[in-house]
């Protein structure tokens, strides 16, 4: 009770260098993939991802990678949580 079963992660492709939080597509995929195994799979059916500053997603270099990862578990439901 009161614990999230879906987590949506936000990523900044560019313009976040002041906080050191710019993320490329491979780094975002690693976070999302690791999330699926965190705490014995509690977030295996996570809520997906969004990203800031879409104009920096040149030719889908970021979103194509992230889309491929989140698509692996799209629509899933983790009954354990």
Helix content: 25-40%
What is Rg? 13 Å
Number of helices: 3
Q: Which term fits the overall shape?
A: globular
The largest sheet, given as strand count, sense and whether it forms a barrel, is:
2 strands, parallel
- The whole-number mean of residue pLDDT values reads 83
Sheet-strand content, in percent, reads 5-15%
Strand order of the largest sheet: 1-2
Helix and strand run: EHHEH
As residue ranges, the low-confidence spans are none
Q: What is the distance, rounded to the nearest whole angstrom, between the alpha carbons of the first and last residues?
A: 9 Å
Count of beta strands:
2
Class by helix and strand content?
alpha+beta
Question: Overview of this structure, please?
Answer:
This protein has 3 helices and 2 strands; from the N terminus they run βααβα. The chain is an alpha+beta fold and 81 residues long. A two-stranded parallel ribbon has the order 1-2. Helix 1 packs parallel to helix 3 (63-71). The chain is globular, with a radius of gyration of 13 Å. The mean pLDDT is 83.
């Amino acid at each position: 009770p009161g614990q999230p079963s879906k987590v949506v992660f936000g990523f900044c492709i560019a313009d976040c260098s002041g906080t050191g939080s710019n993320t490329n597509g491979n780094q975002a995929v690693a976070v999302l993939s690791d999330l699926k195994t965190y705490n014995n799979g509690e977030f295996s059916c996570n809520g997906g991802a969004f990203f800031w500053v879409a104009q920096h997603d040149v030719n889908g270099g970021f979103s194509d990678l992230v889309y491929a990862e989140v698509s692996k578990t799209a629509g899933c439901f983790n009954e354990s949580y």
